[in-house]
Amino acid sequence: MAETLLQATELHTYYGLSHILRGVNFAVKRGETIGLMGRNGMGKTTLLRSMLGHVKPRSGAVQVRGKTMTGAAPFLVARQGIAYVPEGRGIFPNLTVKENLLMPARPGLDGRREWTYDRVLSTFPRLAERLGNGGGRLSGGEQQMLTIGRALMTNPDVLILDEATEGLAPLIAREIWRIISEIRASGIATIIVDKNYRAVAGIADRAVVLVKGQVVFDDAAQNLVGSRETMQQHLGV
């Protein structure tokens, strides 16, 4: 059985008095691609942030490689081979493309360097043409490519993409999906949040759907797409 890299057990997370996550169980195994789905405000980003240490759950547990890290500082979670591409991207606008990529570069936990600077540039040829440009001068699609490339430079075992193609032109979005497919094929476990549910389901092994902070579907992605009733009821499509 594949190793479980990141796991949440019975997570309850609040923002003030608002009870956002209500006993969520979630896990991603080595090499697995999961589509995390749900309408806006259903708890997807809160689940990610709770597992990554950005928000401390009220109760429940988060484990990384079997080690309890509930509420641990985000940098400690990142050091365990977890890379995060947040909604809003979070690039360093005053650094060049090259500096954004080289700053976080490091081998994976097992010492591997599969994602080198040269490999990232070959995967993202647009970035190779803009190495001297400041991050703030890039288009939205280029910034998303830079953020994904920067995450890959850490040689992670898990890559988390929150709103992978939000606000991008269709042509650029297709390029992002191509890149995600390549990442998946490289063996990196991936958690994808995106409003294009069919695109997510087309690339994911498993789909997890949240409704009002609870998991209502956790099964093979093809089974979600194959159930029009479930898609309509929980995703509105």
What do these coordinates show?
The chain is an alpha/beta fold. It has helices spanning 44-52, 74-78, 97-102, 117-123, 125-128, 140-152, 170-185, 197-203, 221-225, 228-235; strands spanning 4-15, 18-29, 33-37, 59-64, 67-68, 82-85, 158-162, 189-193, 206-211, 214-220. The strands form 2 sheets. Strands 6-7-8-3-9-10 form a 6-stranded mixed sheet, sandwiched between helices. The protein has a 4-stranded antiparallel sheet with strand order 2-1-4-5, with helices on one face. A hairpin with a 2-residue loop joins strand 1 and strand 2 (18-29). The radius of gyration is 17 Å and the shape is globular. The mean pLDDT is 94.
Concise synopsis of the structure shown:
This protein has helices at 44-52, 74-78, 97-102, 117-123, 125-128, 140-152, 170-185, 197-203, 221-225, 228-235; strands at residues 4-15, 18-29, 33-37, 59-64, 67-68, 82-85, 158-162, 189-193, 206-211, 214-220.
Derived from helix and strand composition plus strand pairing, the structural class reads alpha/beta
Query: How far is the first residue's CA from the last residue's CA?
Result: 34 Å
Uncertain residue ranges: none
Shape: globular
Mean pLDDT rating: 94
Notable features of this structure?
alpha/beta, globular, single chain, 34% helix, 10 helices, 237 residues
